[in-house]
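Incident log, structure service

09:12 report received: a user says their structure output differs between two submissions of the same chain.
09:20 pulled the input from the user's history:
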Amino acid sequence: MNIPAAINTTSVLLYASLSAIYKSAQVLHTLPTSGGPPACIKVFDIEYLPDIDVIVPCFNENPETLRACLDSIGAQDYAGAIKVHVVDDGSANRDALNVVYREHEHDPRFKVLLLPQNVGKRKAQIAAIRSSTSDLILNVDSDTTLAPDAVKKLVLTMSDPSVGAAMGQLVASNRSDTWLTRLIDMEYWLACNEERAAQARFGAVMCCCGPCAIYRRTALLLLLDQYETQMFRGKRSDFGEDRHLTILMLAAGYRTEYVRDAVAATVVPDRLRPYLRQQLRWARSTYRDTLLALRLLPRLDRYLTLDVVAQNIGSLLLAISMISGFLQIALTATAPWQACFVIASMTMVRCSVAAIRAHELRFLGFSVHTLINLLLLLPVKAYALCTLDNSDWLSRSSAVQDRDEHHVPKSE
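09:34 re-ran on a clean worker, output below:
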């Protein structure tokens, strides 16, 4: 009896079945309901024009990238008052960044807070949040530029008092740089317009991504102590701030939303090494907060349970299939062709559906991401699971060196 082959076939078929159910439900929940608009579309107060505090944490950012970020905030088509808090988190290149800070010092909307040493993104955010006074707080990463109407679109969603947080649609500003940035841009489209859009149908986006996320200040202040003192296995947690804050919002009874029309373009890694470091950090954050999210599932729609189960159990089944496949090759000198065919077929179906929904043939090329997932991301996720108590940002010190060598702006 060929045990590795049996395990391989069973695990890949279970993965295929779970994935087919999950992806079908996901797509269905992003489509308009029959006879009317999507369920996630609500009636908003178009005269709602609250004051907004925009927080831009900055650490060793490329000056040109930061300038573009701040200029896009200053050019927002929004009739309400905007105050911008730029928090320099002990940047080593502060002399270069001071040129950008001085360019905005005469604009009364901008205020620069210079921290004497690096304390981490979360504490840099909190320093600005504690001094904020507006109804809404918008976090914008320093390598992100906003579309002119992004704030207006986000505020429209926040006019519903039951909404505690909302995120915009993310795209890669450096999409055309390399093959990897093109793949990541498609990955972001799928994450936003499939995963987040389906979760938003039930007012439960599980992660309002940091590059462009808006929060209700009254809710944020109630959760600030929990956010600041997040611990895991007795150690302070210093990353995954966007996911953790979103989970806290849901736990407090607020809705979290996705706003497709609020577009934010962010710099993404253009090489594999920084990309994998980023994915390792995100994987640790996801696994940590999934443990917290499990307690919320009984209060949320059953689709969210499917979402959490499929994303976590699906990766496990795929990993088992990969390991058993390699064992089959090593022990029996036969290849797991059935598993290869199933995975290839699923990849082509998913990419074809994405190409049709996005009206862009480039999504057919996203099939390359399957190889990256199988050969690189699965091992990264396994390593993340084994090192959950490691709170190293990974991309802080090493990414600075990479950026200096290759003139690549930071992507956190």
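09:41 both user submissions now match this output. Likely a transient worker issue. Closing.
09:42 reviewer note: The chain is about 55% helix and 15% strand. The two ends are 49 Å apart (CA to CA).
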